[in-house]
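Hi all, long-time lurker, first post. I run a small reading group and we've been trying to get comfortable going from sequence to structure in the token notation. Rather than ask abstract questions, I figured I'd post a concrete chain and ask someone more experienced to write out its structure so we can walk through it together at our next meeting. Sequence below, copied exactly:
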Amino acid sequence: MAQDAHGTCDECGSAFLKARSVMDGLCPECAHWLYGKPACRHEMVGGRCRHCHWDGSVSPFVAGLKPA
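-- Answer (accepted) --
Happy to help. Here is the structure in token form:
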């Protein structure tokens, strides 16, 4: 099904549910930090967000944008 289609984030490399991101090539986490898009309210279950399927990966660049 289309709503279950997964993508791979161009920034952090995590798989994510395409239907949960407003940007084709970025997971919701990277889209939020790089472009100010709405953040996912992550609920991690078994190493993945149950909403967007992000695995917690963060690129070095995005890690530098996040508060310590």
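A couple of things your group might point at:
The longest helix spans residues 28-35.
The radius of gyration is 11 Å.
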